[in-house]
Amino acid sequence: MKIPNNPFIGTHYIGRKEINAAKKVLKSKSLFRYDGPKMLYKTDEFEENMRKYLKVKHVLACINGGSAIKLSFIANGIGPGDEVLMSPFTFIASASSVLACGAVPKFVDIDSTMNIDPDQIEKNIGPNTKAILAIHMQGQPCNMPKIMKIAKKHNLIVVEDTAQAFGSEINGKKAGTFGSCGAFSLQAGKTITCGEGGFLATNDNKVYELAKMYHDNGGYRVGRNYPTWSNGKTIFGENFKITELQSTIANEQLKKIDKILAKQRKNYNAIVNNIDKDFYHIRDGFKGVSSVCSSLAVEFKTAKECSKFIEFMNQNGIGFNYYCTDLISSYDTFTKQQSWDKTNFPYNISKYTKTKCPNAESLIKRVAWFNLSAELKPKHLKYIVKKLKEYQNEF
Ligand SMILES: Cc1ncc(COP(=O)(O)O)c(C=O)c1O
To answer: What is the pLDDT of the chain when averaged over all its residues?
Structure first.
């Protein structure tokens, strides 16, 4: 049996509601969020619904998750000369957003949760460290209570890369609402999606205002009025504005979030609760965590065992695989400090420090991941459990 394992969770739920909502926006011919012939103000509606869902003061929609991270740092004054502590076990966009601000990442090792190790954070704080990027990898939140304590003690800004973890919680509080800003992605492989898109969440009025200006070419806009660039408030900015078409689709997806998460968690439990957890070491969480359950991660003692397991599962149509072959810290962008710019921005102004992350190095070779596709049906789940048991008996 070939088991579905695509990562496109939100995409699976695109249906009549999204199609009708998109049609309405197209018929209105008003695709720009601030102005048009017959405005429906779908971006305002999405931001308001998301604000209520996350229980935060402000939400700002933007073009993608990477720009949401960049806006979060910029609005917090993080830039040239600064260093941001982050895990190397992530997608490159997390780190590109740091570089784009003029700051540099400093890679900090992960713990058994496969997120940044809070104990390693303190050991890596140096004179240029200004922020922590807490990346909630594969839907499972970092230990935010611990990270916030450390950040407070050392006066560091915390931004949460929640691109992969929209809907996950720690003790009932949504991931992405602990730090100064939470940055979220609405890209096709995320919990909810409009193809490409993102948003940031914050409780800080000043941070919100600055992010809003930066994302609108640095202009100062009151409500939906035209922005002005000549009132003494203007800053250098870029255009990171989302369209009404994206927002209306994201808005319909948001209405389905409880259903989406319930199904992900049910499928996860249908596997995890029916296998021998003394034999299979499932990715650790910490107390009070509720994950999006976008994937199943099984840790093995050795790389050889992991490879044997992946081979067995693949032969049986179950697409377990490595999350990645290399940590992003091994990319030329960092090892050779390669940039697009002849002055080698931002490495020419921000000092990059190479670090070792032995735990992360080891875990990427010892953990087998399986995307919990939204297409999984009970017959697939039963088959996966059967094959996991078969593997255990055989080896
Ligand atoms: C951990 C992480 N951070 C940031 C991003 C960037 O999001 P986007 O693709 O919407 O720019 C992604 C996207 O895949 C991601 O997985």
So the answer is: 97
